[in-house]
Give the backbone structure.
Amino acid sequence: MKYIGMPMGMWVLFRKSFEHNLITEFGLDREAAKTVAVKAKPRYKEIIAGLPEFEKEDRFKMNVVNCALLAAFVLNMPERPDVKRLTTYYAGSMMTPAMKWFCRKSGKSKFSDKDISSMKATERLKAADRNPYSWNMEFYPYPDGSGYEARFSACGICTLMRELGLYDLVPAMCQLDYTMSEAGGTADFVREYTLASGGPYCDCGYKKKQRKGGRGYLRTA
């Protein structure tokens, strides 16, 4: 994968927050945090260079790029973090004002015809059959019309983190699904299994938030 493009853009967008949260979450001083960030950049570029290009229709390229970004910082931290602290660190680093805006914008189109069509297209693509750093997904609409589940049998984050010796830290990234869904404002995220915790698949359930008073569901255009 080429660094120029999305990977470079993601570094520019999130480098400062990843560096700042080394101070707030792990107690590093400013100089130590800066040193981690300086070392993380070439490691990030190295990880990106080792990834294949994603198919144009593959919606999950950003996911694995974010994984590479987090991994580059973790691999240069003075001490290896545990999952609990890394979960807080990752959420704080990712949920910048720009990301919260993106989540709100995406939330407005959640459950729309375009959203459903995109989910079905992703199901048909089965990108992980050709790219081990992508995802395979099955789409399950809830029979009562309250939302849908995206069920993943292959996960590019799991593949990359296993190769980097960080597989046990994958749950710190999984938790962001809840955070982003809440920021979107139109869906409650529900989950029973993850591949990283030994489950048969990763289930990502999105239930339409009920209107105040419990009558009906919020609708999106």
The longest strand covers residues 147-154. The first helix runs from residue 6 to 26. The two ends are 35 Å apart (CA to CA).
